[in-house]
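Notebook entry, structure prediction.
Reason for the run: the old model in the group folder had no record of what sequence produced it. Starting over properly, with the input documented here first.
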Amino acid sequence: MVLEFLMIHADTRREALERWLAPHLGGSFALAPASADASFRRYWRATLGDGASYVAMDAPPDKEDCRPFVRVAAMLREAGVHAPQVLAQDLERGFLLLSDLGTRTYLDELNAANAAQLFADATDALLRWQLATRAGKLPPYDEALLRREMNLFADWYVHKHLKKDLSSSQKQTLENIFALLVKSALAQPIVYVHRDYMPRNLMVCDPNPGVLDFQDAVLGPITYDMASLVRDAFISWEEARVLDWSVRYWEKAKRAGLPVATDFGEFWRAFEWMGLQRHLKVLGIFARINYRDGKPKYLADTPRFIDYALSVSKRYRELAPLARLLDEIA
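New structure, fully documented this time:
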């Protein structure tokens, strides 16, 4: 009954969206699903008779707020990053009409031959975004948010997915790791953070890349987006390539005047620890998406994040207790 209600509600919203789009598009158009999303947002591609296409966002206002998307889209474009242009909006109903960045995601297009160029483009776009940083324009990636994210690991991945109850000593181990990761994150220089800067959200287009899914942007640690890019949820790379791309970013960032650490070893440690915070968060999110939202496909990628977390925690003496904990609960 719940599924049937949701389908009826979705169809009702699609009809309302089509009525809203009609005067903005000025003629007949075909509407087709544009992409799947882990949130409650739905994206549709509206194609006109002359072949022109646009993307329409349907974000139920009781579940999603379009205002951050509109605000951050403008900030990205002002920074010289290729984000969609918001052509029309109805914030009360949760409808947006956007320019279309195409259908070619980095995730689909990346291969051994083109990875170097695509990642160079993505790095350059990231630098432009970070160089545009201004205080007070985005919410802070503060301790409360960092901890809320990591708590998803215990609540959803360990308890709900693995069906494990942590012992008192295991809980203390996790708390100690969380404290170390928060301290490392908050010690980093602060820049604009996309917060999901990964190949699934980058489009191969002109200018390259197009950037999507930026509505949760914050002001936070400088290593975060680069860690998201090269230690991705859906594609893994050899460690040598990850290191090479990270060095190239660090060198460009220094030349551009961004406040990265002057010593690459210091930068790399912060990068790895920041990535670990994200890995723990994503393990919790993927479990939550399955059990709360009924979207099971993301769980298939959880082993990738366990591997990431194990690799990093084994490389640093302070993080070794986490490696032992992950082995205990496996």
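Summary: The mean pLDDT is 94.
The old model has been moved to the deprecated folder.
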